Amino acid sequence: MNKIALTLTALGTAALLGGCAGMQSGGTDNPFADASFQKILKNDFSSKGQATVDRLKQVGAAQYECSKYDYLGKPMPEDVAKRIESQSLAAVVPPADGKYLGDWKAGLEVASNGKGMQWNDKPGSPNGGNCEACHKVVPNDPSQGDIGPPLVGYGRLRGASEAMLKYTWARIYDSASFNACSYMPPFGAHHILTEQQMKDVMALLFDPNSPVNK
Ligand code: HEC
Prior knowledge:
The protein is mainly α. The protein has a two-stranded parallel ribbon. α1 packs parallel to α3 and α5 crosses α9. The longest helix has 13 residues. The protein is globular, with a radius of gyration of 18 Å. The structure holds heme C. The site of heme C has 23 residues, from α6 and α8.
């Protein structure tokens, strides 16, 4: 059997975990803890370039618990979800200089760029945020996705209070802070975007001159 080249992106990982969660391997409450399941992963995936099989290891309580309850076909108990959310929120690192807003033009680049972290991307080149794959970010562009809620008019509709800036930063840093099994990649927690890139995306959402708010 041909090995499937490991071309996981941050987004692909979420899809893979979701897909695996439905498999039956018996004898465990989490397929990732099951030896026969680990064997399947080992046989079917191989490292390629910077996309190494290390990425198949579950990182943190959110990935473990979310796969587990998905696999069991049961809703996650409230207390487990609350624990993941409060731990994720507590681990959010605010911008070092206390300034949340960068350059919206650079943020637009980040939001529309879906490249980075794949085996054929140049290691060390900046990753995209791929926000537009899941959100309507700018008006009148039908190519944008709708897995997440529309962000068009974000700053205009919500204002830029300290609380709103903090909330949005934490959402981008690690969305599990508010929804334990969020589909949104943890851009800060998993070092997908740099602090500056997150600031730029924040400016895209809040700057009155950004196309988001026009
Ligand atoms: C794989 C899909 C996906 C990607 C990529 C993604 N998001 Fe999300 N996002 C979601 C989903 C789904 C939600 C809804 C809440 C939840 O499930 O956690 C969300 C929620 C949000 C929210 C909160 C919205 C609200 O109403 O309070 C913000 C802000 C946000 N995303 C910004 C971004 C930004 C900025 C990017 C790019 C850097 C991005 N998202 C990339 C899926 C995604």
